[in-house]
Structures are given as C-alpha cells and as structure tokens.
Amino acid sequence: MRRELGAKIFITLTALSLLLASCSLAPASLSTDETSESPAVTNETKDSSVTTEATSETSAAETTLPAGEQELIDRYNTFAKNLFDRLIPCGEGDEAAEVLRSVPGVKMVGKKQFYEDKEYLIFFEQPLDHKDPSRGTFIQTVYVCFEGKDAPNCFYIDGYDLGFLQMESQREDDPLLDAMEIPEELIKEISIGLDCNYILPEYRFYGTSAPDQLTKEDSDFWGLMNCEQASEDFHQIIEALKKTLGGRFCIEGCSKGGEAVAYQLAKHPEDGDLFIGQAAMVLLGNGDKDLYEYAYTTAGDLVYGKKAAKEMRDLITEFQIECLKNREELMPYYINHAGFVEAPFSPDLDYETMFDCQVLDQVYYWQYLFDNYIDGIKEALSMKDAKTGSERSSYISKLGDVLNMGYSSYQYTMYGKGREFQEKDIYNYMFQCFHEDGHYGYDFSYLRKAIKKSGTDAKLHVTEEMEKDLWDLRIDPSHRKLFPYDPSVLEARKQAVKNPSKPLIFINGLTDIYQTHEVKESDNGNVYIFNIPEACHVDADLEHLTSEQRKEFDKLVKKYMSN
User: Fold this and answer.
1) Which among 324, 317, 319, 322 is positioned nearest to 295, based on CA atoms?
2) Higher pLDDT, 476 or 184
3) Inside any domain, residue 531
C-alpha cells in the first residue's frame, strides 16, 4: 500500500480540485441530497432494490443467511449506494469465508461483486467506548485479502475509510475516479510479501464504520473518535484474528497510519511481531513551523540538486507573489471555486484569510510535483504581462486554476452536508490533527521577505499577530473548546520509538516535506531505519529502496515473520 494518505488524500484531492478548477461539478453518481450519516436500519428504511439484489444473490447460492446478516448487508449498501458496488453474502462452500466467520466478534462476512475470490469484507461489533461498553456498539468494516489460516498476517493501518478500494469498479465509467489512477495492484503492495493475509481495518467513525446512533452534530462522536479508542479497536480485531489465524502479525502503516503504528506499539506491543512505519510523522508536535523553513530553503536539494531545486522553489514563490498581487481580481474566482466543494468552512475562517493560507500552502504541495502543476505555474507566469482585457481575464483564470490544482479550498472544509467522500476524510483528519496527532504551524515570514524583495504591491491579509492560532481556525469553534490538544499521544509515540519492546522499522523519504518529523536515526538495537534521499512522502516505500537496502529489509522481515 504505497499510496496511503499522503497519497490517498492527495490523489483524491488532486482529482477533485482538477475537476472543480475546470468548473465541472462531480458526476451525478457521486452526489447525494441525503446526509452522509448512516441511518439506523429498520424494515422501513431498507433499500428495496438492495434487498432484492442481495436476496437474488443469496437464492442463487441457495444460502440461508444467519440472523442479522441481511440487516448488515442492507445497512452497508444503503450507506454506500451512491459510490460502490453492492455487498453480497458469501455462498455455501466458501471455505475462506467460513474461516473468517469463525473469528470471535465477526458479525458477517461478505464480498463485493468486483472483488477477487479471496477478497472479503468482514464486520466486527465494537464498543462505542472501550472504557464504558454500556454506551453501545458500532459496526467496523475490515477488508481482508485471505491467503490461508497459517499464512503471515499484515495488519495495515490506513487511518481513513475504505472508499478508495471500493471505488475501483466505477473507474472506467467515471472521469473523477478514473483521474485518481488507483493502481490495480494497490492492495498487494505490502512490505512482508504477497503471500500473506492482508487485513485493512476502516478507521473508527470513518466511512461505513460510522455509528448509527451518533451524528457529527453530537459531541460524543468527536469525543470517541480518538487514537486511544481506535487503538483498542485494532487490538480487539487482532486478538480475535489470532484465535483463528496461526501466522505471525506485522503491524504496518504509512503517513497517518505510520503514526498509528507507533501508537499501537506503545499501547499494545503484544499485537505484533514486527512494526513498520512508512513516511511516519511520529514526532510531529502541535504548531511546529520547521516545515516552512525546509520548504523555502532546502526542499528538493537531494533529488533535483541544489541549483535546480532552488529554481523550482523560486518558481513557486514567484507564483505565490503573483496570486497575492492580483488578489482583488482573483477573489471572485476563488470564492466561486470554494462554493463548489459544498461542505462549509469554519465561521472563523473568512475568505481573505483562507486565500492567504492556500497561497502559502502551495509550498506544502510542491513535493507531489505532477507535471501539469509545474507546467501550469510556468504557463501562468508566462502570461503575467498581459495587457488587454481578454488577456488579463485569461491570466487571472489561469492563476486561479493552478492555485486550486494542488492544495485547494477543499482542504479547509468542515463536516456537513456534502458529497459522500468529502466529509468522510478531510475534517475527521483535521480534527484529529488538532486534538491529538499534531499539525504544522503557519509561518509567513519567508513569503513576507520574498514579497518585500520583489518590490511589488503584493499584500497579505494575515498579519504576524494572526499566525499563532491561524491553523486552529479550520476547526469548529465548539470543537476547539471541547477538545483541546492532548500531548499524551505524541508522548506515547516518542516513548515507543525511543525504547520499543518489539522490532520497529521506519522507511523515510528525505525529500518528504514531513522529513523533519520522521525518525531518521536511532541507537536502539530494536529500531531499523531505511532513509531514501530522493523519495518524497508517497515514495517512502520498498520500490525506492536501493538493492542493498532491500536485501537488508527482506532479511529483517524473514527474521521476525517466519514461524
């Protein structure tokens, strides 16, 4: 799984922002007039078309569903009906399904119509609150690619929903999904090898694992969507699987998932025989500003060389200044584009402030250098001397297109009524950054110096006094009050990394914008680090290891994962 959320988020967002930048709305199949909360399943709320389809599949297989399975199928399909193919029950004689069904806590085992024979969705019943089970339960969706009862196991923590796997079937007919370029072998790119049981849990309260009895308007929804509760979810799933599966367990994750791997090691080292974090920002604190120092001074040096990297950084800085210099003409375009994302913004985040943040955050996006982004910047800057009205109009439009091509206004949205996959990832993720995982702090000082040096009339709305709490304005005001930053998660990760009780592998890209928060060296004998100088966030993977690094990595995996 190389494209986790650095990748998953950025690939999804890039596709969306490209579509919006061309002023095209998402296809009807991705829009809904309903809220995205999963309704409680009753006989009255079942989707009759879904029930009919599932029933026909069941009849064809001459299978009688155990009590409650049809309700789970209907619930899942009702939630996902605008995005995904239907979930269907497993037919009789499916030995792998029977093995998975025997796992304690599993309420149902199903398949998607486009899955391969060994791919399944299993559904666990989890407590809403592991500290107080009396508060009720929710259903957590887990993807499994099953190789056998005694195969090694990769428990991969993605940290988000499973929509990117389930969208695969619609790619050919849907221009938005097709633009994501999801690799066909995505689910098989795992560090411990292909002949393993690949287990991918949906993060609690994301996607189809949202609780029926809580909505995003309830403070309990946010109070229970935290790292500790998620860690207990993972622990219960792993403990249950170990009662049926005989192979060793590797706990793996990338980006946000890599952070979660370190936290799982801190809380439940007994869960895994080996822990692997890729592009894992485990040392990211609250309000750290070194991201911008790196982005404006040395970013790209290791992969492009100092001269070429500086030229690229200067190009992006020039683009930022042009956006600010033309902000009065750009604002109507910007506000119009922001309206396309549907989900609302925090009431404290006005368009002028958000515009400045988005201009600054272009340096955050540089490492995902899709050709059309850099080419777009060059094309826009080639038009900056436009004189006539039509030329100026084309120039402003081009600036706006490129500005929204990368780190777009979608990144600043809150939860709310909107397209299904919009509100399932972004605000949940931003809330967790604010509350526990940590986030960068805004630093406009480098851009201010560049503006002054340019001698132009470009101006920022954001003042130095505003910077301290600026990132927090993305978050719902009530959430900022109820859920302040909790440093215990960061401290747990730090302790796990400093003195791990199980073998821990880190794969880092030294060209990663987050490399300042990754563990790049350690004198602990249980920590193994593979630094890849040329790799950015989404390339911190096995594919980019040198041949010598790969031999050493494979040797470690064999050592710790062989029965």
Assistant:
1) 317
2) 476
3) no
Of 26-35, 64-73, 448-457, 464-473, the one with minimum mean pLDDT is 26-35
Nearest 5 degrees, angle CA 355-CA 361-CA 363? Answer: 140
Given 214, 229, 244, the domain boundary residue is 229
Total of domains in the chain: 2
Alpha-carbon distance of 389 to 488, in angstroms, equals 56
Nearest one of 120, 123, 119 to 75, comparing CA atoms: 123
Averaged pLDDT, 47-72: 51
Q: Is residue 400 domain-shared with residue 316, that is, in the same domain?
A: yes
Q: Over 160-208, what HEC string results?
A: CCCHHHHHHHHHHHCHHHHHCCCCCCHHHCCCCCCCCEEEEECCCCCHH
For residues 417 and 283, give the distance between their C-alpha atoms in angstroms, rounded to a whole number: 34
Look at residue 142 and give its three-state secondary structure: strand
User: pLDDT-based confidence at 446, cuts 50/70/90?
Assistant: very high
How big is the chain, counted in residues? 563
Angle of helix 445-454 relative to helix 306-325, nearest 10 degrees, comes to 80
Which has the minimum average pLDDT: 177-181, 242-246, 368-372? 177-181
30, 174 Cβ separation under 8 angstroms: yes
**DSSP strand pairing (106-112 vs 87-89):** antiparallel
Report helix, strand or coil for 421: helix
Beta bridge partners of 478: none
pLDDT of residue 85: 63
Judge whether 2 lies within some domain.
Answer: no
CB 29: neighbour CB atoms within 10 A?
13
Q: What is the DSSP letter of 437?
A: I
User: 274 — phi, psi (to 5°)?
Assistant: -150, 140
> Taking residues 383-411, what's their average pLDDT?
90
229 token code pair: 């509760």
- Which residues fall within 8 angstroms of residue 272, CB to CB, at 6 or more apart? 155, 238, 249, 250, 251, 264, 265, 502
Least confident of 8-12, 87-91, 193-197, 387-391: 8-12
Do both 77 and 204 map to the same domain?
yes
Do 336 and 422 belong to one domain?
Answer: yes
**pTM of the shown model:** 0.85
Distance CA 71, CA 57 (A): 15
Would you give the end-to-end CA distance of the chain in angstroms?
24
The confidence score (pLDDT) of residue 533 equals 95
Q: How far apart are CA 522 and CA 170, in angstroms?
A: 45
Based on the fold, state whether residues 224 and 89 are members of the same structural domain.
yes
How confident is the model over 111-139, as pLDDT tens digits? 887 677 888 999 999 999 999 999 999 99
State the residue range of the domain holding 126.
33-81+83-229
pLDDT at 118: 87
